[in-house]
Amino acid sequence: MNEQRPRKVWRQVHGVLLLDKPDGMTSNTALQKARRACSAAKAGHTGTLDPMATGLLPVLFGEATKFSHMLLDADKTYRATLRLGSTTTTGDREGEVIVERDVSCCEADVRAAAASFLGEIEQVPPMYSALKHEGKALYDYARQGIEIERKSRRITIFELEVESVALPDVTIRVRCSKGTYIRTLAEDIGNTLGCGAHLVALRRIATGDLMLEHAISLAELEALDEPLRETRLLPPDSLLAHLPVVQLMGEMEQRFSHGNPVRMEQGGVPHGEVRVYGQHFMGLGRIREDDTLRAVRLVAWHGGPDVVA
Where in this chain does the record put each tRNA pseudouridylate synthase B C-terminal domain (predicted)? Predict the structure, then answer.
């Protein structure tokens, strides 16, 4: 008789895992492996990395998923290596080379070209992207050889440092706004230099205030005993650490916990989003112009029983 595999127990786990995604793995595969390792019933990630990209992939479990928008909207920081002199179908090393040119620029030219992209710029999203056109991802059209006209989008390059130049390769460090495609930035820098370029390495080193140096690899996570894996999680409120704190007690705590507005003292915490605490972290709130605190996202620490599947 075939032995039955033991059934998996999915637990109510809440927190943020800073994962160092490996090369060659999709973000969803990395998410599912981390979720299984932590036996988390509910999980999501905050900003996809291409399979060839490595680095920081914050994985959210349980109630932390309610605050994923905080990281989706956050600035991202990358270290990228561009190869000058050739362009590819995808803008990175995974595509086919379509044009090759001589690289006649010098280091000073590279630094000047990179500096020209600082600040607010217009960027046309690449065809090999998950953006939708008539309900279908652009990369699906690209694989069929179909070019779809794309509108440019305004993005911001906050910092762009050339870390090394060893032609034809150039390594840069970029801090940028959400929606920035580093592949496209690499191509645009190459076009400015007149020789073209594509991306050969990409590593995300920060998402907002979350840093890669605090991340764990999948291999390291899976090597830990299961009870220790949960110790690597940050609490859900770590995603709101940049917001002012409101502390509630008694009736005010009760009202807020049921989604009712709470009258705040004038001149206390400024209007806008706040993180709210009672006896424990309660969720995300917003203080309106009329000085009432209203719930935006409430946490439910007892989100249901464990699930066996």
Answer: 183-240
